[in-house]
Structure formats: C-alpha cells, structure tokens
Amino acid sequence: MFKISSVGGALADDLIQLSADTAIKGGMKYFDQLATNTDNSNCSYSLLDSVGKNSIEISTTQTVFTRLSASADSSLNAEKVIQEFLPFYRLINKSLNNPAIRRIGLVGEFFTLNGTNNKSTKFVSTLTKFKLKGTSSRFHLSFNDRDDTLDIVGLDAATADYWNCNYSFYPTELDSSRPTEGGMATNIDIQKYYNPAKTDISKELKIVLARFKDKRRTLKAELDEMGFIDE
Question: What is the pTM of this model?
C-alpha cells in the first residue's frame, strides 16, 4: 500500500508546482485545483484543472492520469500523453517509492457515427443478433478479451503476466465527460498485469502503447467494415 496518507499533502504541492513550472516553460498548465479524501482506508489526492480536461489521482492502490481533448471532434496523441505523464509519475514515484507495479493500463475513447438517427437501434441490429420490433432508446455493450502474455499450454493467468482488453460501446449522449448528440462512443482499455511485479514503468509503457495502437487499429477496421466509421 502506498504511504499516501503521510506524504500526500506535500506531494500534491510538488505536483502543482511542477504543473506551474511546465506552464512557465510554454507548456500546458495541467492542474490548479486539489481534492482530497483523507479516509485512511481509501486515502486519495486528486489534482484537476479549472475546466475538467486534465486530472491525476493518486490513491493507496493506483495512479490515474486523465487527459481530455479540446473538443468532441478533436483527438489526442497517445504517445504524447504518455510523455506528459512521465514527469509527474517520476515525482510521484520519488515521493512514494512504489515498490511493486502490478498493472499498467492505457484507455482511449473516440466518437464515431455522427448525425445518425436511432443510434441505439443501429447498435442493437449491428452489434448483436437481437431483432427489434420497434426502436431502441438506450444501448451499452461491454466485454473484455484476455490472453496470456506467454504462449504456454496450461499457463495459470493468476500467477503469470497477462493482457486484458476491455471494450465499451454506447451513444455519445451517455458519455460522462462530454455528452454529445448524434454519435457513438467507443472505449478501449488495454491493461497489462505483471507477476512478478515491475519497478520501472518507462519501458513497459512503450510495450503497452504498441499493444494499444494495434488493438485500436484493428477495432477501427472492424467498425468501418460494419459501417460505423464516417457514416
């Protein structure tokens, strides 16, 4: 468990200062607000910007860095986001001295199918085998695809490295961070689990990024084939 309860306040000050220093050098000012949960069983510190586009949350179990694009029809470069995250992570790791990294993940969301009527109805008819008698007003599909890192027959995934990829599809009106009319939200979440644990994430992030790009490229090709891209 991270020692966040004892050093969280000082660490938050250092992260905000790093954000300010980055802005002075011509970069983005990532954070200017702080939210805390001092419950010892679930202590966390969250840094946010004034418009809700950037945040970093440090808790007893994980660190989560979130970046939101400028608008619903713009995008972020995943590799650049990782480079933005690393200076903050190094500062966090220096303060907390994270002894064991068990999971690294990269999540991306993109919107497609803008302007299509009866989106939920199209989702049901295209992504499932259900036959609707009328129309659908809500749709949410989620599933995961897990495979072992090593191709060994009988490998126990509970005691070895493995990959997990989570997929979600829903109308953009239901998106929690940026509700938008007339689109389809596709969420892809790539996770790598480690046993034994890792101590340095820099190299591992490159591996996770490569996997993320490959899975995203395959997913977009499949959605395009089903008529969900640029319709």
Answer: 0.83
